[in-house]
Specification:
alpha/beta; two-stranded antiparallel sheet; globular
Length: about 100
């Protein structure tokens, strides 16, 4: 058992099992069209490191990071995800119109 103190969190988990280990497992199972990792803790840095080159990584908080991008505040994550979902919905609707038009 391992106890890990994070940013306003305390995790109790099996020793040797962490988010990066889980990410490696899932990444080895299939090729994904889109990968986005967002985190605000030091243990998220390992996930950012192991992601494929075409993945997107975002660190919440203005700290030094290996992530490609930073967002200052947690509320900006929700705003970003809403914009992303909206653009994907628009893209999907545009493709459907091309098929039927």
């Amino acid at each position: 058992m391992q106890i890990v103190q994070g940013n306003k969190t305390v995790e109790v988990r099996n020793a040797g099992i962490d988010k990066a280990t889980a990410a490696k497992f899932w990444l080895s199972k299939q090729n994904f069209d889109f990968i986005l990792a967002i985190g605000d803790d030091n243990d998220d840095e390992e996930i950012f490191r192991i992601l494929p080159a075409d993945a997107y990584s975002v660190r919440v908080g203005m700290v030094r990071t290996v992530a490609q991008f930073n967002l200052r505040e947690p509320w900006e994550v929700a705003k970003f995800l809403e914009a992303l979902a909206s653009s994907r919905a628009h893209e999907s609707a545009t493709k459907d119109q091309r098929k039927t038009g």
